[in-house]
């Protein structure tokens, strides 16, 4: 499409700065190469085939997904897809097993019940599925709790029909502290993971794949001993949370929501047309609170949101925009904000150069 001005967009509108995306991809690609790690980004952040294509071109080995819809969309461009969610339910399994035959599909399990259901469905579909045993290393959400449980489940995977034991997976999502305060968390992850790997290896079930990682711990992933693969999602676009803990610089935030000033009537406040339906009402990690900050004025905070209104706190600044002026808001959490939009407008040098469907959102 021909370049168009941001002024032509109806707000609120989701924007992605492609120059910043490409710089973010180069950075993580170089990091993983330097440390001998495979990179399998989680696509729940951007939910677009176009960005997955860019990640693969930059060196990613495949795509990670969390929903059948994400799997279907990413399988149009990726031949290796990891479904990092319990594969439970006939409808969910049917959609996963209906992915194109060229797609190398792997999934995670943490119970014998989900393994049995997966094995039966894969047999019925005439398809082999790779399996990673999920470990709980402190997140307390999913994953087997002890090395003995991991050995028992891995042994069951290794003997079940139509599935192949690949290794283990974990998610350190509970580690959200600033990067320079993660020493203890890194040591803890290494120790916990080491106990699992030692037990599995002793049982003759040494993992080929040890998949972990997150954006908050991304740049310290190589310090977790035994890790072979990382699955960061946020870092392709980053957000206010990522910047708040030092996992990215503010100028590495590539996603923003374009909004229009609709009112300046209340003293000390500016209201824009991006509320919880455009940004989400998710509290973040920034000490100053709020639900987002302006891209070019990060000291201006979205102090509160209702469904259609975002309230900017301008009480401590002399900045006073006029009604009708446009601003760009960086949300606390990019993944949930992207999921609220149907389209992602691609920006280079301040101009809109393309528009991508956020095809994997919703169902």
Cα-to-Cα separation, first versus last residue: 28 Å
What is the H/E string?
Answer: EEHEHEHEHEHEHEHEEHEEHEEEEHEE
The helix fraction, in percent, is 25-40%
Rounded Rg: 22 Å
Class by SSE composition: alpha/beta
Low-confidence stretches: none
Topology of helices and strands:
Elements: E1 4-5, E2 13-17, H1 18-35, E3 38-39, H2 49-57, E4 63-65, H3 68-74, E5 80-83, H4 90-97, E6 104-109, H5 112-125, E7 129-134, H6 147-159, E8 163-169, H7 183-202, E9 209-212, E10 229-230, H8 240-244, E11 255-263, E12 269-272, H9 276-279, E13 292-294, E14 301-305, E15 310-313, E16 326-331, H10 334-338, E17 343-348, E18 351-357
Parallel strand pairs: 2-17, 3-10, 4-5, 5-6, 6-7, 7-8, 8-9, 9-10
Antiparallel strand pairs: 1-18, 2-11, 11-12, 11-16, 12-15, 13-16, 14-15, 17-18
Helix pairs in contact: 3-4, 4-5, 6-7
């Amino acid at each position: 499409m021909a370049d168009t001005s941001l002024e032509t967009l109806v707000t609120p509108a989701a924007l992605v700065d492609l120059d910043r995306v490409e710089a973010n991809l180069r950075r993580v690609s170089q990091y993983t190469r330097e440390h001998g790690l495979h990179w399998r980004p989680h696509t729940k952040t951007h939910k677009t085939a176009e960005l997955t294509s860019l990640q693969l071109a930059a060196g990613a080995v495949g795509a990670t997904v969390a929903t059948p819809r994400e799997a279907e969309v990413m399988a149009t461009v990726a031949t290796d897809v990891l479904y990092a969610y319990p594969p439970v339910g006939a409808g969910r399994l049917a959609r996963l097993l209906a992915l194109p035959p060229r797609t190398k599909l792997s999934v995670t399990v943490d119970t014998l019940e989900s393994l049995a259901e997966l094995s039966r469905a894969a047999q019925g579909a005439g398809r082999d599925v790779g399996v990673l045993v999920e470990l709980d290393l402190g997140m307390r959400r999913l994953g087997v709790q002890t090395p003995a449980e991991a050995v028992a489940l891995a042994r069951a995977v290794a003997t079940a029909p139509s599935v192949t034991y690949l290794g283990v997976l974990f998610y350190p999502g509970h580690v959200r502290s600033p990067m320079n305060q993660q020493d203890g968390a890194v040591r803890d992850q290494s120790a916990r993971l080491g106990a699992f790997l030692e037990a599995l290896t002793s049982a003759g079930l040494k993992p080929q794949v040890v998949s972990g990682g997150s954006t908050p711990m991304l740049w310290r992933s190589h310090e977790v001993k035994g890790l072979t693969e990382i699955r960061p999602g946020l870092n392709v676009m980053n957000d206010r949370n990522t910047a708040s803990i030092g996992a990215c610089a503010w100028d590495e935030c590539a996603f923003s929501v374009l909004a229009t000033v609709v009112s300046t009537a209340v003293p000390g406040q500016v209201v824009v047309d991006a509320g919880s339906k455009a940004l989400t009402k998710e509290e973040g990690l920034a000490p100053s609170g709020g639900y987002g900050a302006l891209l070019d004025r990060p000291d201006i905070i979205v102090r509160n949101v209702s469904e259609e209104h975002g309230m900017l706190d301008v009480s401590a600044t002399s900045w006073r925009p006029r009604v009708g002026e446009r601003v760009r808001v960086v949300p606390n959490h990019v993944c949930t904000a992207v999921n609220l939009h149907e389209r992602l407008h691609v920006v280079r040098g301040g101009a809109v150069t393309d528009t991508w469907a956020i095809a994997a959102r919703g169902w």
